[in-house]
User: Fold this.
Amino acid sequence: MQQQELRKLAADLKNDLARLVEKRSNWEVHWQEVADYMLPRKADITLERPKGDKRHTVIYDGTAIHSLELLASSLHGMLTSSVNRWFALRFKETAINEDDEAREWLEDVLDKMYIAISRSNFQQEVFETYFDLIAFGTSCLQIEEDKDDIIRFSSKHIKEIYISEDAKGMVNCIYRRFKMSAKATVEKFGRDNVSLKTLNTLKKAPFDDIDLVHVVKPRNTYNPKKLDKQNMPFTSIYFEYDSGHIISQGGFKEFPYVVPRYLKASNELYGRSPGMNALPDVKVLNKMVEVGMKAAQKQVDPPLLVPDDSMLMPIRMSPGSINYYRSGTRDRIETLNIGANNPLGLNMEQQRREAISQTFHVDQLLITENRNMTATEVVQRNEEKMRILGPVLGRLQSELLQPMIIRIFNIMLRNNLLPQAPEILLNQEIDVEYVSPMAQAQRGQELSSIVRGLELFGQIGQVAPVNDYIDPQGLVKHLIKILGLPARMIRSDSEVEEIAQQKAEAQQQQAEMQQQMAESEMARNVAPAVQAVSNAEREQQ
Assistant:
């Protein structure tokens, strides 16, 4: 591009960014309040605050902070656990999933993907994403290719991102305004691509920040047959905000950012969160605790009533001190009754704490298991715990997990890090299947219904042929799907048929052997009788 075209492009991008900034302005005030009371380490959305400053000045009670941490940890463990597998892959065509070679290939692909995820910084970054999601209702996670670790994840501060949606309500455009030191900027983009102003800053103050903007949006026209970055579905542009100098132009095959929303109104762009819902109670509780602390201080160190004509000043307040007054007077030093010993305030504080805990589902998440509980009760408790967050699962699957998994798969595929697919799998589409603890818990209700149904059928099977209505093989396959068992543990239909045939042949051979033994035994029993009859006939002759 010519310099004139580049300047016009940068000007257009800055204008688009200005419109997105205006649309987001109302949200920023709300986010700042939430961060002040619940996520103080990110309380710099509308305020320019120095790094390392104290950010707990308005917090007098930590209920909201602890509740937010608990919900974030619970979502992390139930959706993207570091211990258990939380997703699987299946082909959209059901028949292909029954092929042994296809199943083995999917298992190998899954192993490679989980190894890549475990070696990356996924766990700490996605955990931070959950924090933002619960506090602000919107979070952002960037997924990049990395030469050393294959994949690199980066959770972005809510104050950096400005988004827009497509016709389906999915985020497909992002403007990210962020700061990077002059030294890091030159290292990332090269000396030849940055502006003269940045080079001068690098020379004089290499650790001073450069104001940058990263734009990723759908490309209007491109040639999919070409493999260069200028012909990809999404365009990627970096430019310096102050000078408007474009320092990088490229593209992505997939949208490199995932922007999930916790809850979302149909006419709004950014999400709503439990932190927003709890904010009124949090502010009231903090004020009540603040007032209560002042009242407690007055009780411990109360104001005094001192007569003005009988005391020998000054008054000594240290332990063991002696104060003198004129003899013959009845005046004494007395405390001022401030009426601070009122249990009503404590009751109201507890009510606010309970309301905050309910907003963050603390009671359900902290359900303890009793030693006297049966296995069924334990399962029901866990199912109830999972169902509490069930409504959030659908949006998180579509806006966080699915695009993230697809992005990881395609990165590894392009870098030849996945096993070669058999010819039978060419041009076959793959679906993502979630097998996380939350997904399994949601299926637990269906499993419980099946178990109860089988128990009922067993009771009435004595009087009605209910077993004739049940396909045993179909039932087993459905149970395997609900339980999320690995494909390597499951035999194919051909193997099951072969085993059934072998069993039938063995049973037939056993039946034949038993028949032969019975015939031999009968022959041995009949032989003496035949011999006796024969002897009797000879004697008569």
